[in-house]
Amino acid sequence: MKQSLFENRHRVEWDRFSLTLDGLERGKKTSGASSFPADYRRLCHQLALARERGYSSFLVDSLQQLALRGHQQLYRQRGQLGAKALAFILDGFPRLVREQWHFVLAAGLLFFASLIGFALLVYWIPELIYNLVPAEQVRQMQEMYNPESGQLGRTPERAASEDWVMFGYYIMHNIGIAFQTFASGLLFGLGSAFFLVFNGLMIGAVAGHLTHIGFGQTFWSFVIGHGAFELTAIVLAGAAGLQLGWALIAPGRLRRAEALRTAARTSVGLICGVMLFLVIAAFIEAYWSSMTGPAPAIKYLVGAVLWSLVSAYLLFAGRTRHAPE
């Protein structure tokens, strides 16, 4: 292709990219900012073509200057994105949880009241577990937490799985539960309330049954560590779902669609934090909770520390704005 044809074909694109760069360098948002990474990659490809085809040094140098400026802005944007993510983790997410404390409290009561209440009932009346959990699943749970099985928190089929495989499994399983609890809030909050209670009943049934048959030490020492992040994440996912439901029930002076959009912005922020909590929970569950070497007392101590850290983080982090916005 002749240089003149190459220039005519791409000149408008280069001018638009230059205008986007001018705006980014002045710290202003421009219409081309969202497509900037793709535009930058395309410019680099065109620069490589110009060099390969031996076009004039004037054209090559001009494209080279645009590419250098683009490179600086691209990595500056990535750095800003990292800073915003860090600010959200250190500051934005815990403040968001505290701002939505009424939904968090409601979700926490639904989940933990059903969990603790049913755990006590099953402990006192063991037959109750079979009204909620199939007998085969009860048998699998007993195998997973049998002190003599030589494994912890895994069925015999998964006993040989590598930790990273289980890490991926835990992430997918937990995210599925959290998303189900959150998204079902669109049913005027009833779906989120149902799944909070249902999951609480299921966990409580297993906890009560295993404690009753004498497997309590293996069960509690297994769950106490990752439970700080996992159970908290379930509650927060439920709180986000309840917020969506409340926007539909009581939109105030807004139309329901507008109230839902407003609530969704906050709920999505909560869910982003939930995803982070679930990744941490999966990591702990795969690489720490399943270990059989540490004594139960050590696991209880580590679990107490993790619960304290999660509580302190949600209660106190972000009260003084110190992270970049």
Explain what the structure shows.
This protein has helices at residues 3-25, 36-52, 57-99, 101-124, 135-144, 163-183, 190-212, 216-249, 256-289, 296-316. The model has no long low-confidence stretch (mean pLDDT 86). The protein is built from 10 helices and no strands. With 325 residues, the chain is mainly α. Helix 4 (101-124) crosses helix 8 (216-249) and helix 6 packs parallel to helix 8. It is elongated and about 85 Å long. The chain has 2 domains: 3-86; 100-316, no CATH class.
Q: How is this fold's topology laid out?
A:
Blueprint: H1 3-25, H2 36-52, H3 57-99, H4 101-124, H5 135-144, H6 163-183, H7 190-212, H8 216-249, H9 256-289, H10 296-316
Helix pairs in contact: 1-2, 1-3, 2-3, 3-9, 3-10, 4-7, 4-8, 6-7, 6-8, 6-9, 7-8, 8-9, 8-10
The largest β sheet comes out as: none
Shape: elongated
Distance between the termini: 48 Å
Order of helices and strands: HHHHHHHHHH
Helicity level: over 70%
Unreliable segments of 5+ consecutive residues:
none
